[in-house]
Amino acid sequence: MHLHEPSRRATAEAIGTAVLVATVVGSGIMATRLTQDIAVQLLVNAVATVAALAVLIWALGPISGAHFNPVVTLVALSRREIGAAEAARYVRCGADRRGLGWPGGTALGNLMFDLPAWHASTKVRSSASLWLGEVVATAGLISLIGALTRTGHGRLGPALVPAWIGAAYFFTSSTSFANPAVTIARAATDTFSGIAPGGVSAFIGAQLVGALVGALLTELFYPRPGVPEPLDLPEPVHVPEIEGAAAAADPPS
Fold first, then answer.
1. Domain 5-249 in this protein, CATH class
2. Where are the domains positioned within the chain?
3. Which residues contact 115 (CB under 8 A, 6 or more apart)?
4. Better pLDDT: 100 or 77
């Protein structure tokens, strides 16, 4: 089956988001069935997520840039590193209801353990300390990706991005959601990884603040005049709008 490049990238993003969510949800359920030790449950959930994220970035990154996260896409859009249509496609495909994106990932994670595909979580996660944890986790993620891309070390993304998420699982109070799509997905599973729907908006608000902080840190530590590198891992797959416009205005002779 042949797919045009935009559709190919969007499909990779949808599948990546679905698999990431299924990993978070499924490993959380498995952990609670294996042990009652909460520390071990969190460890199982973290290790599975880190491993899956590494594989996804390595396997799908060369196709889509491995965003799998609306805040990554929004930061790239704000810097004109990705077009508005492409950004909308990435965000939309993360919520694809045809079996891909976060709805499919949540359903898959639940169904594999004989649970309803979607069922609202009752786990309350609502406090200023948790929101601060989300700001820290998301700021670290965005600034790390910015550092990797602007120093030309995007190939280290499959190792370092999961390493940050794994560390933030344990040192932040929120256990590092750091992703609006994953946060919404976790509201649809009443299991270990869930979050009550009433807490979702505050978590996403904190993630947006964290994304802004991370973007500012990138500009502070790794300023780059002209057209910056897109936030794609392990290598750029998008042509920034400024560069694309310049190329169109001055075609090669």
1. mainly alpha
2. 5-249
3. 29, 189, 191
4. 77
